């Protein structure tokens, strides 16, 4: 195409008829220059702004090391608390087992294991504190190395950036971690260990007495109604009297029966027999015997009405009056001395004593007298009713001597009640001793549970308030790097840049903490699988106690209930069941709150906020310089020059001992069968980092920042 200028028109024409003006050509050139200039400005601004993103990434990486440390703290806290709970539980469960002779030997083993767990707890606590403190000292290095590695990984790109970064934790030094021994738990261990054998012996004595008492009670039960439908008080009362079914109950188990049932049955029986009694014929002999039976039933009812049964649960006393079985025994009762028999004269005119007022010789009545008076006066025997002392003495003789008589079984129940009373006296005395000892020991366990619930690891490591990162780009690249253009001059250079950023930790609802504790449970199941017997029992309690760390009171309640259900507590004395209930109540009252397991996540915040949260040297110096720079909009060189040295010193001081994976502490099973290390594995970039690397980064920062001038205000 050829342009031809047409005279006078100020325009250019081409051969095809198109045209342009000089103004339009200039406008096109200006537009292109502005477009490329704007693109270059955007490119330069983006390259300059990228360093802030790198600084943000560096500070988040640094504060992430603190978050990892807090996970280790929580794991150690979970182990210390769970071992403390396990030790206290072993002592409490041991005391419960010692109260039940079938479980006594297991109880001794549980107490011994409780002591071993306590020793393991104290050893672990000491090592955990030492390991965590050592890791605290390494945190500044880990943070600085993570920041450096993060900055390096962001180097390159379109502008061929070369980033160097470093970070400072706020505060620079953490508070020393101390995990004290539990005095209350140690006191409980001493008390339970000291009294274990005496408690076992007292429980065995109570058990023997309880067995004797049970044997006597069982005998009383069988002779009252347990032998039905064979001969027994129940069967005889039903067969021989008009007693009602309400007054003559049948019990099928000794557990539902008591001696008071037999006593009440006896009273109702003699009342019914007295009311039922009547001569079977008009014969004088039959009428005399019926009258004497009525005298005996009235006497028997009065006698048994003096009986009693007092059972409070903690004590027992009973009195079953014995009835005479023969003439000799009758003479020892008021049947012999009561003046209830009518006096009369026989055909010879001699004074005689009669069986009842219906005897022909008893009329006319001459008053009454006793059998004792008759024998003392040597009265002759009535030739009609033939009443003598033996006449009354033999009324209960037959029914007391053979099994088809009610009195035969009543006598057996009365003897059983006396035996039971004596055995219960021994049992109750022994039980009071056991409850006194066991109750005191369980109170020690209660005190231990109360104390250990508040003994938690409260860590405030370096960086728990936040971190500040400092990053520079070492490359002073030409402004048109990768974007050369004829429209924009490329001779100017984009100088070294610097940026700072701040971060802190924020709790975030997460299952991470619970997952970490669950991994410990997996380790227990894997490495502790060889444990058997009492050791297996204790290991199960420990795993349940670890769950209590996450879930609180409900989990520890379940742990104790499941453990108690596993103990063979059934015994005659019932002291094991009593102690189990006492321990369960103590644990339920402990009120354990679940641990806070929310994940700690690093988040970006103002560097001023981080510095203001601490009064340490770094923070104080940082705030002074920052405020000065903000107020003057001057160079940021003084900030870096004053602070980089502090970062380098803290990082290098903590360098020793940080090589590869850091083992905080190792959980050693107090029951044998392995161990689980608690470690923090360093990222590859940090693991390769050395003290020289951190020093080189610090030197580079100082050198680069010293060459930077300008008026850029930083935040």
Describe the structure.
Residues 189-219 form a coiled coil. It is a single chain. By secondary structure, this protein is α+β, with helices and mostly antiparallel strands. It folds into 2 domains: 22-182 and 455-706, no CATH class; 213-418, no CATH class. Helices cover 58% and strands 11% of the residues. The protein has helices at residues 22-98, 104-153, 183-226, 233-240, 259-276, 284-305, 327-330, 334-337, 371-376, 389-393, 397-401, 406-452, 512-527, 533-551, 553-566, 575-588, 607-612, 617-632, 637-653, 684-687, 691-706; strands at residues 4-6, 11-13, 19-21, 163-170, 308-311, 316-319, 341-345, 351-353, 368-369, 466-473, 477-478, 493-494, 497-508, 599-605, 662-668, 675-680. The strands form 6 sheets. Strands 4-10-13-14 form a 4-stranded antiparallel beta sheet, with helices on both faces. Strand 15 (662-668) and strand 16 form a beta hairpin. It is rod-shaped, with a radius of gyration of 50 Å. The relative contact order is 0.16. Residues 527-532, 628-640, 654-658 and 704-715 have low confidence and may be disordered.
N-to-C CA distance: 58 Å
Instruction: Note the total helix count.
Output: 21
Classify the helix fraction into a percent range: 55-70%
Structural class: alpha+beta
Shape: rod-shaped
Query: Mind describing the biggest β-sheet?
Result: 4 strands, antiparallel
Number of E-type strands: 16
Output the strand order for the largest sheet.
Answer: 4-10-13-14
């Amino acid at each position: 195409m050829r342009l031809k200028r047409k005279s006078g028109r100020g325009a250019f024409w081409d051969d095809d008829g198109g045209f342009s003006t000089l103004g339009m050509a200039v406008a096109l050139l200006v537009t292109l220059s502005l477009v490329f200039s704007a693109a270059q400005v955007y490119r330069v601004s983006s390259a300059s702004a990228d360093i802030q993103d790198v600084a943000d990434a560096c500070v988040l990486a640094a504060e992430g090391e603190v978050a990892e440390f807090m996970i280790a703290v929580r794991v150690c806290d979970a182990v210390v608390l769970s071992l403390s709970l396990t030790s206290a539980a072993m002592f409490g469960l041991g005391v419960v087992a010692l109260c039940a002779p079938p479980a006594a030997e297991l109880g001794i083993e549980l107490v011994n294991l409780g002591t071993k767990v306590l020793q393991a707890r104290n050893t672990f606590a000491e090592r955990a504190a030492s390991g965590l403190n050592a890791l605290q000292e390494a945190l500044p290095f880990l943070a600085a190395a993570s920041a450096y590695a993060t900055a390096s990984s962001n180097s390159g790109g379109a502008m061929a950036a070369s980033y160097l970064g470093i970070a400072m934790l706020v505060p620079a030094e953490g508070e020393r971690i101390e995990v004290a021994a539990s005095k209350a738990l140690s006191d409980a261990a001493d008390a339970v260990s000291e009294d274990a054998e005496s408690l076992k012996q007292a429980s065995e004595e109570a058990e023997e007495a309880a067995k004797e008492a049970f044997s006597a009670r069982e005998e009383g039960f069988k002779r009252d109604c347990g032998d039905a439908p064979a001969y027994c008080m129940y069967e005889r009362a039903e067969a021989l009297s008009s007693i009602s079914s309400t007054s003559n109950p049948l019990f099928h188990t000794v557990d539902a029966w008591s001696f008071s049932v037999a006593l009440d049955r006896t009273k109702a029986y003699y009342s019914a027999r007295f009311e039922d009694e009547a001569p079977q014929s008009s014969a004088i002999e039959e009428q005399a015997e019926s009258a004497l039976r009525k005298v005996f039933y009235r006497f028997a009812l009065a006698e048994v009405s003096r009986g009693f049964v007092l059972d409070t649960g903690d004590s027992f006393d009973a009195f079953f009056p014995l009835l005479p079985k023969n003439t000799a025994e009758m003479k020892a009762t008021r049947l012999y001395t009561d003046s209830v028999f009518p006096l009369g004269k026989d055909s010879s005119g001699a004074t005689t004593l009669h069986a009842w007022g219906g005897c022909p010789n008893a009329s006319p009545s001459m008053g009454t007298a006793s059998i004792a008076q008759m024998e003392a006066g040597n009265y002759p025997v009535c030739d009609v009713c033939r009443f003598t002392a033996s006449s009354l003495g033999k009324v209960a003789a037959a029914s007391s001597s053979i099994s088809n008589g009610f009195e035969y079984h009543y006598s057996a129940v009365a003897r059983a009640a006396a035996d039971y009373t004596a055995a219960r006296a021994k049992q109750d005395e022994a039980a009071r001793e056991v409850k006194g000892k066991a109750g005191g020991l369980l109170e020690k366990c209660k005190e231990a549970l109360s104390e250990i619930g508040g003994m938690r690891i409260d860590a405030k490591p370096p960086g728990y308030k936040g971190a500040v990162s400092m990053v520079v780009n070492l490359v002073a690249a030409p402004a048109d790097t990768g974007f050369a253009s004829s429209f924009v001059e490329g001779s100017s250079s984009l100088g070294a840049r610097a940026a700072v950023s701040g971060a802190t930790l924020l709790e975030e609802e997460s299952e991470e903490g619970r997952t970490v504790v669950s991994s410990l449970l997996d380790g227990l199941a894997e490495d502790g699988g060889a444990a058997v017997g009492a050791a297996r029992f204790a290991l199960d309690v420990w795993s349940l106690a670890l769950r209590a760390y996450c879930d609180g009171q409900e989990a520890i309640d379940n742990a104790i209930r499941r453990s108690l259900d596993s103990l063979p507590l059934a015994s005659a004395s019932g002291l094991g069941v009593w102690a189990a209930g006492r321990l369960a109540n103590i644990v339920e009252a402990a009120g354990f709150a679940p641990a806070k397991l929310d994940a700690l996540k690093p988040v970006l915040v103002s560097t001023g906020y981080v510095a203001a949260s601490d009064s340490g040297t770094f923070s104080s110096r940082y705030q002074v310089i920052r405020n000065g720079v903000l107020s003057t909009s001057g160079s940021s060189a003084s900030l870096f020059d004053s602070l980089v040295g502090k970062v380098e010193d803290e990082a290098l001081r903590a360098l020793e001992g940080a090589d590869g994976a850091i083992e905080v502490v190792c959980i050693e099973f107090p029951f044998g069968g392995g161990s689980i290390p608690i470690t923090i594995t360093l990222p590859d970039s940090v693991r390769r980092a050395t003290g020289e690397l951190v020093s080189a980064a610090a030197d580079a920062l100082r050198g680069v920042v010293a060459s930077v001038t300008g008026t850029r205000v930083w935040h």
